[in-house]
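Page 42, continued from yesterday. The earlier attempt failed because a stray header line got pasted into the input along with the sequence. Redoing it now with the clean sequence only.
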Amino acid sequence: MRKLLLPATALAAAALFTSAAAAAPTGDLRAEAMMPGSTPFTPWLTVLPILIPLLGAALTMMLRHKVTWQAPIAMAAVGLATLFGFLLFAEVAVNGPLIMAAGNWLPPFGIVMTVDRLGALFVVATAVVGLAGLIYARRDIDESRTRFGFYTFYCLLIAGVCGSFSTGDIFNLYVWFEVFLVSSFGLMILGGEKLQLDGAVKYGVLNLIATTIFLIAVGLLYGFTGTLNMADIRAVIAASDGAPVATVGALFVMAFAMKAAAFPMHFWLPASYHTPRVVVGAIFAGLLTKVGVYALLRVLVMLFGAEGELFYPLIGWLGVFTAIMGGMGALAQTNLRRMAAFLVVSGIGVMLVGLGLGSSAGLTGAVVYAVHSILAMMGLFLAIGLAERFGGGATAAGADIYARSSLVAGLFLVFGFAAAGLPPFSGFWPKLMLVQASLETSGVLGIAGVVAIILSGFLTTVTAGKAWALTFLKPAAERGPAPVAAAAEAVSVPRSGQAAVVLLAALVLLLGLVPQLVIVPAEEGVAGLLDPSLYITRVLEAH
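This time it went through. Structure tokens are written below.
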């Protein structure tokens, strides 16, 4: 465990507190490259949702022998990160992009943390589902997994994901990817079961390949721009005549599409997300693939600008096939967690369709769908975890869960319908927005996008209905007497776990009834990607 934790901690520290010494000016120019005076409190909001979970990870590691302290420390850390995430969101909504220069080195000389409306929206979503996962985990994670670092890895994961959404440096984005990948490896193998190790190998190999491609792309990008600062990169590319972005863009698309589990490299996700503890699979399903989609948005739309339009049709067609293949794969499953994993893949396809359209409406629909998917996929996995406790296993056909707990059966249906895009839940509005954006797009891709979104929604509806009928509604008498172990397990279902799933269900319903809570910041975030002039000015003219 120490071999995993130390590199992650070192990478995180490097991401926040070091600057590129080779790029630093010397002599009399040094003062011009340094931020005068001390940093006021407001810029610290960019890093507090990252620093506090990192502190929680350090404390839980140092106090790993105090088993009963682990969960409260982690919950306090992620809870404070949630609070500061909302404060960050409010600050950015009022005053625009917020920056903090590491070591007081002004950009583009040093590393800068930069949060705009889009990044703040994803930071809030990350912190909220991270807190819900910890509430569920308190009664789901046993003492052995606690001793071996579950809460340490969990806090590192939240810090890494928040860091990915908050960085203004392309190499720093790679660093934060490494932080949450290292912690996700640790979470996946906790317990050491054969099925977990099998899933971890598939998960690890594909993600390490994608990370290597990502690093190569960053090196090539630095080679022809001479900078790693995102605002500076956009300014250099915009000022250049025919910048050679085709090769670099292709590498970025390949790396991020693999991380997002896009077709045809989607197979690793259903093969791995069902293997660890359900709360681990839930946080993976809710967050990790969305980081890949976010990175595609940030790099192709904001950094490359008009040059990135070259890749939109490719991404759109990848989205069409991913959405349909994910829906078909989910329909064929009998294992509830594998079914949910395929639904994650289908949702990624829907987001990629919106990105591939390239229009403001399509990009906004993709962002709104991403926020919905973070909540809905996290809730779906956790609801399945509750169902497994009542039904006695992941397949649990004929478990008659509705008779045992109508609440759990109802929660599963809420998330299933939300994933399908049915009203009044959160998935309806982004799918409607994406259908409208596809209809406004001329060409075959627009028609294919409409077909893929509607067909994936239909397949998801059938999948959720089939699972609910066979697992939640079918009487146990139809397959013989209910197992005694399953009945005993039903008594031990923790109320805290149910409360976490109810919280997520309430958010899914709230965003379905009041979609402007997400649509407005998503529109403003996408506007900032398409016209990053304020972002560039705020970063490059920092004082």
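Notes: Residues 1-27, 478-491 have pLDDT under 50 and may be disordered.
Reminder to self: strip header lines before submitting.
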